[in-house]
Amino acid sequence: MNLLIVILFAPLIAGFLAWLLDFKVIREAIGIIGASIPIGVLAYYYSTVTSKSITYSFTVGGFTLGFQLSMLTWYFATVASIVGVAMAFGMASTSKSSYDWLFALISFTGVLGVFLSSDFVGFFLFWELMTFGSFMMVLRRNRHESLKYFVLSVIGAYSMLVAIGIIYAKTGALDFNTIRQALQLDAMIGAISRGETALIYTLFLVAFGVKAGAVPLHVWAPGAYSENDQSYTAFFSGALSKAGVYGFVLLYILMGAKLYTALGVFHNHLVFAYILAWIGAITVVVASFLAVLQEDIRKLFAYSSVGQVGYILLGLGLGTGLGFAGALFHVLSHAIFKGLFWLVTAAIILRTGKTRFEDFGGLAEKMPVTFAMGLIAVLSLAGIPPMAGFASKWLLYEAAIQAHMPLVAGAIFLGSGLAFAYVVRFLYAVWFGQRPSDLEGVKEAPLPLLIGMVILAVPNLVFGIAPGLVTEYLNKLFGNTIVGGDYFRLVTPTGTYNALLVTVLLVLGLSIAGLIYIYGAKTRRIPVTDTYQSANPVTGEYNLSIRRNFYRPLAEALDFWLKYSWDRFYERLAGIAEDFADWLREGFYNGNAQSYSWYLAIVLLILALWGVL
Questions:
Q1: CB within 8 A of 562, min separation 6: which ones?
Q2: How far is the C-alpha of 569 from the C-alpha of 574, rounded, in Å?
Q3: So what's the pLDDT on residue 533?
Q4: Left if phi > 0, otherwise alpha if psi is -120 to 50, otherwise beta: which for 361?
Q5: Cβ atoms within 10 Å, residue 67
Q6: What CA–CA distance (Å, rounded) separates 226 from 215?
């Protein structure tokens, strides 16, 4: 029996059942079971996909929808499914509504359909299903933010639809294999012009860039991620953003040869890839700076999510095998450490009802397991060994150096430094220091939410200590040894990383430091105002404590740049469009029958001149 249909529709069916059987425990059990089925079936198919692809198709409304489980699609679907299971356990604790289960699991099916589709009909339909489910989740909590998400998503969807239409007009095909073959042939004969190729590329760049949250199309992401059930945001940020990434990978597969011949190279770099690399680099830097300046933990991790996807786009844009290996590794590592962060955030908000740094402190004693999970996420996101985040970022850095793109490599380094800056603040402000009196009654996170965290924490550790488990699979996917070594060592043409050795040395070093702290360190109490002030007086208005205005000097240094905002730019653009629409409405829909007669006469004349009448 072909089980692809089970992978696709198990979450969707479970969502509808949870919505219909709206009873506590039953609703959560159905949701968890439905979200767990895809990862079980994908695990069952693991040994099969490494030797051959699995296909399935059915016809709906005259259209044949094809699906394929290959090594590439298995990888993306598995990443999404791991986060999907964790999301379901988290929602069992944080969501009390069948509405949430319905639309969360609809979006789960949508993203799986995007990854498994083998033609543009299914790809677009499931893309819209994914967007619809996530939009409804945002709509319930914040109409303004949902409107931004809706408008940007509509722009992306229409861009994709026009691009698909042009491809169909030029190739007469909608399935990926036929399109790839047709465009490879056209790369040699040049039937599709350079302008048309550039237009298709630009349209896909917009469509996939919106979903990936790439700058300057990222404006929907901070609000949509933060104004949501944070357990669902673990999936929203960790899995749905990868649909945009997968779109760019698909662009390479379908149009790589055509884009190379049509757009050429720039300083020995593919032009279309070079553009993507710099979009990724700018996204990393801009989003990381904005994350550092946030005073709300939800907004901090929302901007962080945007920046981390920038690393993936950067890696794909390098256009090398090592760049692709690093990017695909970061697809996994970002999904598991950022998903873990959002579940930790969900636990904090659930137990405290607070989101701003100034309201936190000393939670490590009250929520020790959640703190441990948060610490794993902090280390992985900041790119500190032996976590998965370090291994993937190390590969990206090596790839950028090997591709002779030092400025892009600098963006990786700067982004990692900024990531360390904002997660250190999260670590100290939330978990350590004085605990406000209103947080004395805080309890540990509920068991289902803790299970969801563990599901994501374990692969952070496993793939960090044994990154070769991932690179071995990626080498099989590429059909070539891109990253050498073994389970514990990564070897590239420019360097070697021994994760096991680093882990052993870190454990020894931390053990020695711990013994010194316990038996030899002296402690002293200091006032909360005893912190760096950059020669400024300690006042209530300018108190740079870890919980309040900690990076205010950085904000002041960036004051010139912070005056400019893509949000404000789009709002002004929307205002201009609205004013123009009002002018058209008032000018044309004026209630004058004589004017309407002239409009009809002009239209008929134009049709006659075109030979239609």
A1: 293, 555
A2: 9
A3: 47
A4: left
A5: 24
A6: 18
Angle between helices 468-478 and 388-402 (to 10 degrees): 50
Which residues lie closer than 8 Å to 114 by C-beta, 6 or more apart?
123, 126, 127, 130, 243, 246
Report which residue type is found at 181. Q
| Spatial distance between the Cα atoms of 305 and 152, rounded to a whole number of angstroms | 18
d(CA 453, CA 431): 17
Q: Name 564's Cβ contacts closer than 8 Å, sequence gap at least 6.
A: none
Q: How far apart are CA 402 and CA 396, in angstroms?
A: 10
The pLDDT value given to residue 12: 95
Backbone angles phi, psi at 536, to 5 degrees: -85, 150
Distance of CA 487 to the CA centre of its chain: 27
Cis peptide before 553 (omega within 30 of 0): no
Question: How far, CA to CA in Å, does 203 sit from each of 12, 104, 179, 245, 527?
Answer: 30, 28, 17, 15, 56
What pLDDT was estimated at residue 101? 94
Q: Which residue has the tokens 């996530």?
A: 134
Question: In this structure, are residues 301 and 338 in contact, taking their beta carbons and an 8 Å threshold?
Answer: yes
Say whether pTM exceeds 0.85. yes
For residue 538, what pLDDT is reported?
Answer: 56
Assigned token pair, 210 = 């919106």
Distance CA 333, CA 391 (A): 9
Separation between Cα atoms, residue 580 and residue 559, nearest integer Å? 33
- Are 104 and 133 in contact by the 8 Å Cβ rule? The answer is yes
Q: Residue 371: which residues within 8 A CB-CB, separation 6 or more?
A: 363, 364, 431
Q: CA-CA distance, 271 to 320, in Å (whole number)?
A: 13
572 token code pair: 């002004």
d(CA 472, CA 495): 17
pLDDT digits (tens, 9 = 90+) for 165-201: 999 999 989 999 999 999 999 888 888 889 999 999 9
